[in-house]
Design brief:
Layout: H1 40-50, H2 63-68, H3 74-88, H4 92-126, E1 130-135, E2 138-143, E3 152-156, E4 164-176, H5 178-181, E5 187-188, E6 195-196, E7 201-213, H6 219-226, H7 236-265, H8 270-284, H9 289-306, E8 309-311, H10 315-320, E9 325-329, E10 340-345, H11 360-371, H12 385-397, E11 405-410, E12 418-424, E13 430-436, H13 438-442, E14 445-450, E15 453-456, H14 459-474, E16 477-487, E17 498-507, H15 514-523, E18 527-531, H16 536-546, E19 554-557, H17 558-562, H18 566-572, E20 576-580, H19 584-596, E21 601-605, H20 611-616, E22 619-623, H21 629-634, E23 637-639, H22 644-684, H23 693-704, H24 706-711, H25 737-763, H26 766-787, H27 804-822, H28 824-830, H29 837-858
Parallel strand pairs: 9-18, 9-21, 14-17, 18-20, 19-20, 21-22, 22-23
Antiparallel strand pairs: 1-2, 1-3, 3-7, 4-5, 4-6, 4-7, 8-23, 10-17, 11-12, 12-13, 13-16, 14-15, 16-17
Length: 859
């Protein structure tokens, strides 16, 4: 590995946009008392001057345009043309009423779409990247949009660079600039290449850079200015439903054409039958189906974010309901990520909870942890939980910074599993300190410190150390080894021939509720798999505590994975619950193996090297607190609290929303079949026109709007996680849903037709009969909406009051119905009359008989 000397300095930027002059190598900078970074007042001034650090995308649609887009479907256009024709023929009341109803339908769609758009905008804002920036001498996390030219920003492996700028210091820094250059090879940064660019990712090392350009002035901004934002693709479910709507529309149009032609052949008015046919088509075609799906998904996403699950892509909500395997990281997800050093172990001191300073190996180990860390003295809360725990422990014992100068550093890497620093001692000598995974570190050691002596590391000593490591790991500790050696000069950085010092055992207890969440997943047919870089024994201990590892299940290490070919791995994964000592490359193989077994796999990750596996998974999940920007970009969902329990809550929500989509599909299609069947049978049996066009439009407004959306907000069934996952290829009409839709549609149609016939024979007046049919059709559909709350029972087994929005929507619809029937001026518009109790009795009996009949058939 190529090393780069780093000046032992802190850059103190002036409060101006000018970049600092490059110091000659080896020249000591003049230290100033001025704090690092810009002051708050200067940030505000520059933000006013340069604006926010954001890219300007395609302009959003104006509200007026969005409103008129509600009327672009062909059916509504035909209806508006017919309305104009009514005006031309002098049918002003009918024309005005139809126009008002069409406008109300469009207005409701407009309001729903605006609400969905705002919900998604707020969620996108939550997922916006952050940057670690020095402000007034303090390192803090700020939204990347708040950066201004002159800010001093810290970047590390996994970060997405938030602005264009110039490096002022770096340690083994390399960046992926393929998004700008197309070159996949990472670019090493240092003296020869000091520029960093917005949107590129840090793949190794760390550094600090001074922001030079923000927003549209960056290279990415220049590209964004030439391109429109990519439009959002419909979700798979939306595509499926859109195709379904086309088939339904074709069938409905055919029936409506038959209705119109039959009416004309019977002597009905041509224009009246044309209006009837078009109105029936508008009522029959479920035009709002995809819109309701989108609204329901967006509202589900909004609910999920309140439970700390931020869904970045809507289709993830659908896919979550199919998940069969969840591959989860251990630290911070299954455990609390609240690391603390619990024990020390050396050849002399087998184990002690507090550092025994009389043991020189422990003394040297503390010194190693004090200097060999990614935690900075001016930012003690920055870095991983393990780094912070080691830093806190060592700093408590060695509060004063050792009189050494860092010459070079090899940062921790998940593949190398170790970190090293080369320190220059006051006497002019050099010492290399290293820490990392004990097994990896031991393989690079040739001797071991026993008290004040250094002895060769023979087979006996090595076996004893391996045993000590196992003892700590068996107690669910994360074990970190420490080693050192004297170096010859500032270029002697080989991590070989080290002197092993001992172990530090860190504890990270399981999160509250994880055990219950794992059990809940098992009940739901979901396999939980722990993937960690920890020792096999440590991983197994935590897995047993949380119920992930049960009798008969395996623990596989990264070394064992390396010996397996893909075929062997495919045969192994379903019997394995824990993968230990794995690298990011292993994670990718594990995910692919599960997918090849036909499993719908979710994968959690936080580091930059986890991104390929997260991207490969059916549901990629990033950690919200510890996740890097790269991983968040690759993920479909972000756990804002990094908690595994949140994952199971998200799966339950995903299953629930799919169940609710089935519910309102059942409702909408049943109602539409009932409406078409009513008109078709009436024409077939040479009856008068059962419902007038304006009455059909009223039904469409009263029953297909608020009740359908309210049904999509149904709270999820408590038994939803006691059922196996659905198969992705499963039809949306599976488990008899198609039969129930057809059966309910027929019953609604026969109920309406029966009410018309009974009242017509009772009164001999077609207006009374039509009013009864209108009442029967709407009332039957509103009863059916409550039946749709469950697929497993009847209306007599449901809970009516667990969805107050549905009750309110039904109440509004019933109020509108009675107003149309009993308010004189509305009677004139909708051609209705007041019905007596006796005239209402038959329609009510027909409507109430239908649920009873469906309950009998269901049994």
């Amino acid at each position: 590995m190529k090393w780069m000397n780093v000046l032992n300095q802190e850059f103190l930027p002036q409060e101006s946009s000018a970049l600092p002059e490059k110091k000659p190598q080896g020249e000591e900078p003049i230290r100033e008392e001025k704090p690092r970074g810009l002051s708050r007042q200067e940030v505000l001034r520059r933000k006013k001057e340069y604006g926010e650090n954001v890219l300007v995308g395609k302009r959003k649609k104006h509200a007026v345009i969005l409103f008129f887009e509600q009327y672009k479907d062909i059916m509504t256009m035909i209806l508006l043309v017919c309305t104009a024709a009514s005006v031309f023929m002098g049918e002003y009341v009918e024309a005005i009423t139809i126009a008002v109803i069409v406008l109300m339908n469009g207005f409701l769609g407009f309001l729903q779409e605006r609400k969905t758009e705002r919900t998604l905008e707020s969620l996108q804002a939550m997922a916006a990247p952050h940057a670690n920036v020095f402000r007034g001498g303090v390192l803090c996390s700020q939204p990347a949009s708040e950066l201004v030219p002159g800010d001093l920003v810290l970047i590390e492996a996994g970060d997405r660079i938030p602005a264009d700028g110039t490096l002022v210091s770096s340690v083994a820094l390399s960046c992926d600039e393929s998004m700008l250059t197309g070159e996949s090879v990472a670019v090493k940064k240092g003296e020869d290449e000091q520029s960093v660019y917005m949107g590129c990712t840090v793949v190794g090392g760390r550094g600090e850079f001074l922001v030079e350009h923000t927003g549209m002035r960056t290279k990415m901004g220049q590209i964004a200015g030439m391109l429109n934002q990519i439009s959002e693709e419909p979700t798979p479910l939306q595509k499926h439903l859109a195709g379904l709507s086309k088939y339904i529309a074709a069938g409905c149009l055919l029936i409506c054409a038959i209705v119109s032609i039959t009416g004309v052949l019977r002597g009905e008015d041509l224009f009246s039958m044309l209006i009837t046919g078009v109105s029936l088509a508008v009522a029959a075609v479920p035009e709002g189906l995809c819109a309701v799906v989108t609204i329901s998904l967006a509202l589900a996403v909004s609910r999920m974010v309140k439970q700390n699950a931020l869904v970045r892509k809507l289709h993830a909500v659908e896919t979550l309901g199919c998940a069969t395997v969840i591959c989860s990281d251990k630290t911070g997800t299954i455990t609390k990520n609240q690391m603390s050093v619990h024990a020390f172990s050396t050849m002399k001191t087998k184990e002690c909870e507090k550092p025994d300073r009389s043991d020189e190996a422990i003394e040297q180990m503390l010194l190693c942890f004090r200097v060999c860390t990614a935690v900075q003295d001016d930012a003690p809360t920055h870095g991983s939980a393990t780094e912070q725990a080691l830093y806190r422990c060592a700093s408590a014992e060695i509060p004063q910074k050792p009189p050494m100068t860092k010459v070079a550093e090899i940062p921790f890497d998940s593949t190398r599993k170790r970190m090293s620093v080369l320190m220059k001692t006051p006497g002019g000598g050099y010492t290399l300190y290293a820490k990392g995974a004990p097994d990896v570190l031991l393989s690079r050691c040739s001797s071991v410190q026993v008290g004040s002596r250094i002895v060769p590391l023979g087979a006996v000593e090595r076996a004893q150390l391996v045993k000590q490591n196992g003892v700590l790991a068996d107690r669910a500790m994360r074990v970190i080894g420490a080693a050192y050696r004297q170096a010859f000069d500032e270029t002697d950085t080989a991590e070989e021939g080290l002197v092993f010092l001992g172990f530090a055992g860190l504890t990270d207890p399981p999160r509250d509720g994880v055990k219950q969440a794992v059990f809940r997943g098992r009940q739901a047919g979901i396999k939980t798999v722990m993937i960690t870089g920890d020792h096999k024994n440590t991983a197994a201990a935590i897995a047993k505590q949380t119920g992930i590892l049960t009798e008969g299940e395996r623990v596989v290490t990264g070394a064992e994975l390396d010996r397996m070919d893909d075929s062997t791995l495919r045969n192994t994964v379903m019997q394995t619950s824990v993968f230990a000592r794995v690298s990011p490359e292993h994670k990718l193989r594990i995910v692919r193996a599960f997918k090849q077994r036909g499993q719908i796999t979710a994968m959690t990750g936080d580091g930059v090297n986890d991104a390929p596996a997260v991207k490969e998974a059916d549901i990629g999940v990033s950690m919200g607190k510890t996740g890097t920007d790269v991983t968040k970009e690759a993920a479909d969902m972000i756990l804002l609290d990094d908690d595994f329990s949140t994952m199971m809550t998200a799966v339950a929500e995903g299953r629930s929303i799919y169940a609710n989509i089935r519910k309102f599909i059942r409702y909408l299609l049943s109602c539409n079949i009932g409406e078409v069947l009513t008109m078709f049978l009436g024409m077939l049996f040479s009856m008068p026109v059962i419902l007038l066009p304006i009455q059909i439009l009223l039904v469409n407004l009263v029953t297909d709007g608020l009740p359908a959306i309210a049904l999509g907000l149904e709270p999820y069934d408590q038994n939803v996680m006691k059922k196996p996952p659905r198969k992705p290829e499963e039809s949306i009409f599976s488990n008899g849903l198609g039969f129930r839709i057809i059966m309910c549609g027929i019953l609604i149609g026969l109920t309406t037709l029966g009410s018309f016939v009974c009242v017509y024979r009772m009164t001999g007046d077609v207006t009374h009969a039509r009013t009864a049919a209108l009442f029967s059709l709407i009332f039957a559909q509103l009863l059916h909406v409550f039946e749709c709350k469950t697929e497993e029972g009847s209306i007599f087994s449901i809970s009516f009051f667990n969805n107050k929005k549905l009750i309110a929507a039904a109440a509004v619809s019933v109020t509108v119905l009675f107003c149309v029937m009993y308010v004189p001026w509305l009677q004139m518009i909708f051609s209705t009359v007041s019905l007596s109790f006796e005239e209402l009795l038959w329609p009510m009996l027909f409507c109430l008989a239908a649920p009873v009949l469906r309950a009998v058939i269901h049994r």
